Amino acid sequence: MKLLVTGANGQVGWELARALMPLGEVVALDRRRCDLSHPETLAALIAEQAPDVIVNAAAYTAVDKAESEEALATTINGTAPGELARAAKAAGALLIHYSTDYVFDGTKSGPYTEDDAVAPVNAYGRSKLAGEVAIRASGCDHLILRTTWVFAARGGNFVRTMLRLGAEREALRVVADQHGAPTWARNIADATAHIIAGAQRERREGAFASGLFNLTSAGETNWHGFAEAVFATARSALPELALKVTSVEPIPASAYPTPAARPANSRLSADRLAARFGIVMPPWQDALRRCLEELAR
Ligand SMILES: NC(=O)C1=CN([C@@H]2O[C@H](COP(=O)(O)OP(=O)(O)OC[C@H]3O[C@@H](n4cnc5c(N)ncnc54)[C@H](OP(=O)(O)O)[C@@H]3O)[C@@H](O)[C@H]2O)C=CC1
Ligand SMILES: Cc1cn([C@H]2C[C@H](O)[C@@H](COP(=O)(O)OP(=O)(O)O[C@H]3O[C@@H](C)C(=O)[C@@H](O)[C@H]3O)O2)c(=O)[nH]c1=O
Ligand SMILES: [Mg+2]
């Protein structure tokens, strides 16, 4: 089996290059070799590579910047996945694509299921929704995996931002009225490998159906709770990191103005993924500890 990964230098893309190895030949392309801001180049690239599976881990993920660059974000997150999907259809390949909790407005009280209505409140969310719609319209075999609050030992993410700020400042203020589940890129990649193996088995048996699945850590918190857990875990897992921070104040989002609005509820139900692929993701606290232990090494 030949698997083509886009966004090879991203949090998830980096982990995929390792996690997919047991499944076959992995060709992991970074932005330089596969640029989603030029969707018109993708059909030829896929035809030439002739993969059995395409895993699209490339995305425009700068949520605040997307407010002033919505056209570019939409090209990368909307138009390009549509082109990959049409190329996947032509090649008879399976497309795995990642989406986000930010397709929701966050007004639901419980966890969102895959059947809940979408209503993005920011440009990034609209661009990611455009990608989902374009993929569905292509008719290729696909699985769209919605994840949330991704972190990893490398790359840009909230954990690394908190470790940097916590080493610089004594007091931090962090939003406490946005709720979700931090998800480790490694767990996403490992789950993806398991999902691909299951999906390819289904496709061989003629039992495959394309679909949408939530893929997030078990448990929930808010950004303030996550920040406090980062510092508590770092104090034991990363003792050599001199943390200055002594106060982490919980604040409402209204006291932390940002260009992009963010949903208050980002919690996603994990039931559909468990039922189809038998995957139960670990609690976010366990993933955080393992990630920080890795940072220490
Ligand atoms: N990060 C998060 O919190 C969440 C992410 N997701 C989704 O999960 C998926 C993986 O995200 P994640 O790994 O966290 O994101 P990252 O931001 O860590 O990685 C995204 C990668 O995409 C690459 N990229 C950006 N623009 C282009 C382009 N024009 N052409 C090709 N590659 C490009 C970046 O390249 P470069 O390294 O050169 O900048 C980067 O390597 C995405 O679909 C994202 O929308 C969903 C929920 C939460
Ligand atoms: C740095 C900082 C952030 N915050 C707040 C801002 C925001 O509400 C929250 C998280 O900030 P971030 O900018 O890290 O989060 P953000 O970039 O919005 O994260 C999102 O990224 C995209 C790609 C997704 O798909 C989402 O699932 C989600 O992970 O923390 C504070 O309250 N205090 C701080 O010091
Ligand atoms: Mg961000």
From TrEMBL:
Keyword set, alphabetical order: NADP, Oxidoreductase
Oxidoreductase listed as a keyword: yes
Record Pfam families: RmlD_sub_bind
Family matches, as InterPro entries: dTDP_dehydrorham_reduct (IPR005913), NAD(P)-bd_dom_sf (IPR036291), RmlD-like-bd (IPR029903)
Single GO MF descriptor: dTDP-4-dehydrorhamnose reductase activity
Required cofactor names: Mg(2+)
Cofactor binding summary note: Binds 1 Mg(2+) ion per monomer.
Keyword NADP found: yes
Pathway: Carbohydrate biosynthesis; dTDP-L-rhamnose biosynthesis
Superkingdom as given in the UniProt entry: Bacteria
Ranges of residues in domain RmlD-like substrate binding: 1-295
Catalytic activity: dTDP-beta-L-rhamnose + NADP(+) = dTDP-4-dehydro-beta-L-rhamnose + NADPH + H(+)
Purpose: Catalyzes the reduction of dTDP-6-deoxy-L-lyxo-4-hexulose to yield dTDP-L-rhamnose.
Family the entry assigns: Belongs to the dTDP-4-dehydrorhamnose reductase family.
Protein name as it appears in the record: dTDP-4-dehydrorhamnose reductase
Species the sequence originates in: Aromatoleum toluvorans
